[in-house]
Amino acid sequence: MRLQLIGHDYKYAAEQMLLTLFPRERPVYPPEGVADDGARIALEGGEAVCTLFRNGRTYTGRAPADGWRTQRERVRAEQRAVKLSFYRAALASGAPKPVWGALTGVKPGKLMARYLSEGKTAADFAADFDVDPDRAALCEATTRAALAAKASLAAGDIGLYVGIPFCPTRCAYCSFISSDVRASEKLVAPYLKALLGEIRAAGEEVRRAGQRPVALYLGGGTPTTLTAEQLDTLCAALAEAFDLAALREYTVEAGRPDTITAEKLAVLKKHGVGRVSVNPQTMSDAVLAAIGRRHTAQQVADALALVRAAGNFAVNMDLIAGLPGDTPEGFADTLEKVLALAPENVTVHTLAIKNGSFLASRPEALPGAEDVGRMVSLAGRRLAGAGYRPYYLYRQKYMSGGFENVGWARPGTGSLYNIIMMEELATVLAMGAGGSTKYAGPDGSVRRRTNPKYPKEYIERMRENGI
Ligand code: SF4
Predict the structure, then answer these.
(1) Which of 164, 169, 174 to mutate to test the pocket of ligand 1 (most atoms within 8 A of CB)?
(2) Which of 90, 104, 263, 430 has the fewest Cβ atoms nearer than 10 Å?
(3) Are residues 170 and 55 in the same domain?
(4) Is 368 in the same domain as 450?
(5) 118 assigned to some structural domain
(6) Among candidate residues 57, 76, 96, the one where a domain is terminated
């Protein structure tokens, strides 16, 4: 879409709104301006005015940029006005109303926390941004869970993340750095060697800083792609490098059921792992085949049986609404099959089509936004009815229908790590390829340090660093 900004340079705000309202369009800034096709967004006299020219007609949206006292608040108010004016003009032109209204951020909980701290309510939040009331209620519930988690953390409490960027095969929707282990097997041993070096160095950093790990998460990729012996070595190295006495939670992604064995589970149990994720994404064999998972729904049930037999693990299961070939009926069937396995947590993602994933080149294979909306709504109703409560929520760019990802948990079983990570409540020290350390400052600021993305580059960087 052709865009023209007048009296401001809030490109990012305008483009975020464009992506939300017209996901298939990309911004273009013609040097001659916009007079007949596109959107012109002006900011003057404390008000943003959007003039939208579409299909030979003109629509106008207005929003005030007022109520600010500091420069920071001024920028925030102006960005909000730019978005809202664009939003109002677009809705007047017949664009469908997104469930999150004019909100574009990936962490709506941050804004909700500010609302609650100012004595405002979820209804105010919904009204100010035209958010569906059920989304506002969901956001309030997850924000309250985050506030409770925050209150339980002491100064110096941190999370630890360890990335294992290997999987048995690559899923069609994957945009992560994970490598198909069949093609990269020879990298696993040198990768682990480099990782153990980084773990030792990180352990010293944490000791020197007097920090206390309270949540430890092995993700990726699929850590259980490693052999039982390799997992044993890795967990032993973590126990040696860090003082884990205050650890409240130890989680391992065992995402792919075809990587789970009784032997590996015994190793995890021995090292104090208390949570595992077994992620079917769908319980339809046809959809599993369409996304390249190379395992069946029966293997998911069998893996769950192994986990339950191995001991007292809290289990999370990830589902995705909007997978290729799936339908609301198929998704309902998946939900029932997952609920029958009685996991402690169910995380319902909405498919996000990211650049770099195979599905980005095949949008025609995907269910429409209306069907995805039915899947997401059904999940919320069914999980709430089965006693699960929403405890964390985030949105991503390029999500089907602009919906959200929600972690649901039986009371008292939600993952502290997920909340810390998502709400940036504490420092999370990340080790391994693609790891992104977030240093949380006392003023709420976050400083990032990222590791090289791919195993090869990571191994080289660790070598250069003398690790
Ligand atoms: S299991 Fe996850 S990380 Fe691995 S290929 Fe699939 S989406 Fe990517």
Answers:
(1) 174
(2) 263
(3) no
(4) yes
(5) no
(6) 96
In this structure, the residue with its CA closest to atom 6 of ligand 1 is: 171
Residues 420/159, Cβ–Cβ less than 8 Å: yes
CA–CA separation, 185 and 388 (whole Å): 39
Query: Residue written as tokens 């991503």?
Result: 396
104 CA distance to ligand 1 middle (Å)? 26
Phi, psi of 393, deg, nearest 5: -150, 140
- Of 66, 96, 126, which residue constitutes the final position of a domain? 96
Residues 65, 208, single domain; the answer is no
CA of 105 to the centre of ligand 1 (A): 25
Q: What is the DSSP letter of 221?
A: S
CA neighbor of 228 nearest in space, from 260, 190, 184: 260
Residue of 171, 252, 347, 353 best suited for mutating to test ligand 1, as the one with most atoms within 8 Å of CB? 171
Alpha-carbon separation of residue 396 from 76, 167, 389 (angstroms): 21, 23, 21
Q: Looking at residue 37, which CATH number applies to its domain?
A: 3.30.160
Ligand 1 center from residue 102 Cα (angstroms) = 31
Altogether, the residues listed in the chain come to a count of 467
**DSSP secondary structure code for residue 451 in this structure:** -
For ligand 1, atom 7, the nearest C-alpha belongs to 174
Give which of 68, 107, 73, 100 is closest to 446, Cα–Cα.
107
Full-model pTM: 0.92
The boundaries of the domain holding residue 64 are 1-96
**Number of folded domains that form the chain:** 2
Q: What is the CATH number of the domain that holds 442?
A: 3.80.30.20
pLDDT tens, N- to C-terminus, the chain (467 residues): 999 999 999 999 999 999 889 888 899 999 999 988 999 999 999 999 999 999 999 999 999 998 899 999 999 999 999 999 999 999 999 999 999 999 998 999 999 999 999 999 999 999 999 999 999 999 999 999 999 999 999 999 999 999 999 998 888 888 776 677 777 889 999 999 999 999 999 999 999 999 999 999 999 899 999 999 999 999 999 999 999 999 999 999 999 999 999 999 999 999 999 999 999 999 999 999 999 888 999 999 999 999 999 989 999 999 999 999 999 999 999 999 999 999 999 999 999 877 666 677 677 778 988 999 999 999 999 999 999 999 999 998 777 678 999 999 999 999 999 999 999 999 999 999 999 999 998 888 899 999 999 999 999 999 998 88
